[in-house]
Specification:
Blueprint lengths: L3 E2 H8 L2 E3 L6 E2 L3 E2 L10 E3 L12 H6 L4 E4 L7 E3 L3 H14 L5 E6 L4 H12 L5 E2 L10 H6 L8 E5 L7 H8 L4 E4 L7 H4 L2 H8 L1 H4 L6 E5 L3 H4 L8 E5 L4 E6 L4 E6 L2 E8 L3 H14 L4 H8 L11 E4 L5 E5 L5 H14 L5 E5 L9 H14 L4 E5 L5 H7 L7 E5 L2 H7 L7 E5 L6 H5 L9
Parallel strand pairs: 4-5, 5-6, 6-7, 8-10, 8-11, 9-10, 11-12, 12-13, 18-22, 19-20, 19-22, 20-21
Antiparallel strand pairs: 1-3, 2-7, 14-15, 15-16, 17-18
Length: about 450
């Protein structure tokens, strides 16, 4: 966080200064985990379901924190507020308003947000100091927490923005006003919360509405609901899409290559769907001032920084594993299955598919759809994990002539018992969290971690 004082923090967040003078300097990180470095920083104490962060206030100060932001007086120097989340939001906005040379990049979409955020961060870091932490810090806590990492030397702040309801992204954009906004796609990932793709588009488009007149809106031309957002902004609109990539090919490891404005791009990341994600990242980099030729060259070096997203590893016995267990929806599972088919050409393929959450009324149909595709792609073994995912097997059974096996596992331990890897197999493990990563970790050689 930029240098400030506890007195300024108390004023900004509407809190009460306790056990310290207003001139106490805060110039370190803002953290809510006292195990992380806190020298000169601010420790935020939350009342958790299992752990009360206020109990660690003394340890945080002892480790070097300048103050504690919490809901009650802990006897340590700090600021007492009624709502720590709201206080963080106000503090983040106060901090960013004091960084006029900073460019905030906001990113949203139904799938691919975190991966594309990783790519954008790697490209922009070639232009200047960039903050784009691994993981999905895209909610009311993660958003200001990430924004508060910006300092006077930071040139770009890349923020992933999630939404659970209409108005959510608008709120996040008020915390950290974006100058460049990217919308990747509108899918069925959260249709259970929004009710329809059209309602999802209304929520996602709030990012574009928040852009200033001298900002840049980067929209996916291949998604009609995203492309239609162009009328919702006063910013300059830049479209990206498959038409920008010519001569697209994938190799036996499902690494795509293509030509971008006459410049060759050869990706190191897995999946044909990464073409669209990298085109979005290139559009951001060019909007930020990077020559197209440099962006194309840089794309060949980007990697996925966030764990459990199309993480491909090979075992000593020749088994290849695709760990895509962080989250799942219909479109991302379709993309992962296509990668399995490419990587598994001439080899036995095994798809372990768990529950895809937040599909609402589309839940059964979505699971059946990915099951049908698995069978159409010729997956040799299909394992559905959990009762909610059983329709995956029903979908596969609808495909005439499929000769693969369909197996059901009630939970992760049952799925692990069914794995039985043989040399040369290719496994895909994919689901919406729910600890399905336990299954993929059972396939990891010792010492190979996500």
């Amino acid at each position: 966080m930029i240098r400030t004082t506890l007195g300024e923090i108390a004023e900004v967040v509407g809190g009460r200064l306790v056990n310290a003078g207003p001139e106490t300097v805060v110039d370190g990180p803002v953290e809510f985990d006292n195990r992380r470095p806190l020298a000169g920083g601010l420790f935020v104490a939350f009342d958790g379901e299992k752990v009360d962060g206020h109990e660690f206030a003394g340890a945080a100060i002892a480790s070097g924190a300048a103050g504690v932001l919490g809901a009650r007086d802990t006897g340590q120097p700090g600021v007492v507020v009624t709502d720590q989340i709201e206080a963080l939001a106000r503090l983040a906005r106060f901090s960013l308003d004091r960084l006029p040379d900073l460019t905030v990049v906001g990113l949203t979409g139904s799938s691919g947000k975190t991966t594309t955020k990783d790519y954008i961060g790697q490209l922009l870091s070639r232009l200047g100091e960039t903050i784009a932490p691994p993981g999905s810090l895209n909610n009311e806590l993660g958003h200001p927490y990430t924004a508060l990492k910006a300092t006077a030397s930071t040139r770009f702040l890349v923020l992933e923005m999630g939404a659970r309801q209409v108005g959510h992204i608008r709120h996040l954009a008020e915390i950290a006003p974006p100058r460049i906004g990217v919308v990747l796609n509108v899918g069925a990932a959260h249709i259970g919360k929004f009710g329809s793709k059209e309602q999802t588009a209304i929520a996602k488009g709030e990012l574009i509405e928040a852009l200033p007149a001298d900002g840049v809106a980067i929209l996916n031309a291949d998604d009609p609901l995203v492309a239609a957002m162009a009328v919702r902004t006063q910013a300059r609109v830049v479209f990206f899409g498959e038409a920008d990539a010519s001569d697209v090919r994938v190799d036996e490891r499902d690494h795509a290559s293509y030509t971008l404005a006459g410049h060759p791009v050869r990706l190191r990341v897995t999946g044909r769907h990464q073409v669209s994600n990298t085109l979005a990242a290139a559009a951001v980099a060019v909007a930020a001032g990077m020559p197209v030729a440099d962006a194309a060259a840089a794309l060949g070096e980007v990697t996925i920084k966030s764990e459990r997203r199309m993480d491909v590893f090979d075992r000593p016995d020749g088994v290849t594993v695709i760990d895509d267990t962080y989250n799942a929806n219909t479109s991302s599972t379709v993309a992962a299955l296509r990668s399995l088919a490419t990587l598994g050409a001439g080899r036995r393929t095994v798809a372990v598919l768990g529950y895809m959450a937040e599909l609402g009324d589309e839940e059964v149909a979505g699971h059946r759809e990915v099951g049908r595709l698995a069978a159409e792609l010729g997956v040799d073994r299909l394992i559905a994990v959990s009762e909610e995912a059983r329709p995956v097997l029903d979908g596969a059974a609808e495909v005439p002539g499929w000769t693969g096996s369909a197996e059901f596992a009630a939970d992760q331990p049952a799925a692990i018992a069914l794995l039985r890897p043989e040399p040369g197999d290719v496994f895909l493990v994919k689901a919406s969290r729910y600890r399905t990563w336990d299954v993929v970790d059972a396939l990891r050689p010792e010492g190979v971690r996500p």
